[in-house]
Design a protein that fits this description.
- It is found in: Cell membrane; Membrane.
- Its EC number is 1.3.5.2.
- By secondary structure, the protein is α/β, with parallel strands linked by helices.
- It has a single domain (40-341), classed as TIM Barrel (Alpha-Beta Barrel).
- It has helices at residues 2-11, 14-29, 34-42, 75-80, 124-132, 157-168, 193-206, 226-239, 259-263, 275-288, 304-313, 322-327, 330-341, and strands spanning 51-53, 56-58, 62-64, 85-91, 104-107, 112-115, 142-146, 174-178, 216-220, 243-246, 268-271, 295-298, 317-320.
- An 8-stranded parallel β-barrel has the order 3-4-7-8-9-10-12-13, surrounded by 5 helices. Strands 5-6-11 form a 3-stranded antiparallel sheet.
């Protein structure tokens, strides 16, 4: 089915196509029995898929990465397509429009995207309200990806993360601290050891509410050096956070079919060109830390084999975004089958 509509969708600009698909899916899902039908087509259940990671039980290890559902508008619909968990956001304390358009580009020959969206979202309170009113919330594991507003100075960034953390605490199952997007000026400077440790320690201190802590993860860039990755391992262990998501998008343009053209286009690159580096980062973190903490693998997963490579490198779970755009919802089921049966 997706192969039939993909040429039409790819004839539209990427943001228009996203609105059309997500809005259409939401409209269809309002029809009686539609979610059950979607689950029967795209869902795949098998005991071998079940995972327990950072204290949460996942029905399968294939999740939707942050960025697709920034405002928690399509959680139930995405779950009906077979995802084992959904990560909403990145959300910020205050609504913001993001960067000027155009800000999302398809690199079809490379099976990639470049985005410089800039944390466009309706604000954390809107997302929290939507999550609070979900009908089938108990069957869906939801992560909250949190960031800072563009106008907030880095010296005050921790206050933005606190606001998002507090607002989402009762409505998400885990948190992801995003300091690795290349599309908010200066944000990646927060990956340095001192500011990052301060943010994570501050959130960890608040991470006891009613005696129950929520898993707190850190999303990192693929462009970190080995020395910086060593720092990440130390920070994870010193702060006691639950794990790492590896990786975000890259600013590297090496190896693209039209490298000269896309080098001038600002933003983060995702998709197949990121696959090898994301896997290298996963393997480095897992090996150097002696598998001391869970890793969620994301970056360039366009096939079941791509997912297996992330898992074999040391990931406990994987996430899709660009591969989902290029391959459609059937990719989730194919990956789950491959994991379950080899």
């Amino acid at each position: 089915m997706y192969k039939l509509v993909k040429p039409f969708l790819f004839s539209l600009d990427p943001e228009s196509a996203h609105r059309l698909v997500s809005g259409g899916l939401r409209s269809v899902s309002k029809l009686w029995g539609s979610k059950r039908l979607l689950k029967s087509i795209y869902g795949y259940h098998h005991p071998a898929l079940e995972r327990e990671v950072f204290g949460l039980k996942f029905k399968n290890p294939v999740g939707l990465a942050a960025g697709f559902d920034k405002n928690a508008e399509y959680v139930e619909e995405m779950a009906a397509l077979g995802f084992g968990f959904i990560e909403i956001g990145t959300v910020t304390p205050r609504p913001q429009p993001g960067n000027d358009k155009p800000r999302l580009f398809r690199l079809v020959e490379d099976q990639a995207l470049i985005n410089r969206m800039g944390f466009n979202n309706q604000g954390v309170d809107v997302a929290a309200t939507r999550l609070r009113h979900l009908k089938n919330r108990q069957h869906i594991i939801i992560g909250g990806n949190i960031g800072k507003n563009k106008t907030t100075p880095n010296e005050e960034a921790v206050s933005d993360y606190i606001k998002c953390f507090d607002a989402l605490f009762d409505v998400v199952d885990y948190f992801v601290v995003n300091v690795s997007s290349p599309n908010t000026p200066g944000l990646r400077a927060l990956q340095d050891k001192e500011p990052l440790t301060h943010i994570l320690n501050t959130l960890q201190q608040r991470n006891l509410k009613g005696g129950v802590a929520k898993p707190l993860l850190l999303k990192i860039a693929p462009d970190l050096t080995d020395l910086q990755l060593d720092d990440i391992i130390t920070i994870v262990q010193d702060t006691g956070i639950a794990g790492v998501i590896a990786t975000n998008t890259t600013i590297d343009r090496h190896g693209l079919r039209d490298e000269q053209r896309w080098r001038a286009e600002m933003g983060g690159l995702s998709g197949l060109p990121l696959a090898r580096r994301a896997t290298e980062v996963i393997r480095y973190l897992a090996t150097k830390s002696n598998h001391a903490f869970p890793i969620v693998g994301v970056g360039g997963i366009h096939s079941p084999q791509d997912a297996l490579e992330k898992l074999e490198a040391g990931a406990s779970l994987v996430q899709l975004y660009t591969g989902f755009i290029y391959e459609g919802p059937g990719l989730i089921k194919r990956i789950c089958k491959k994991i379950a049966h080899g």
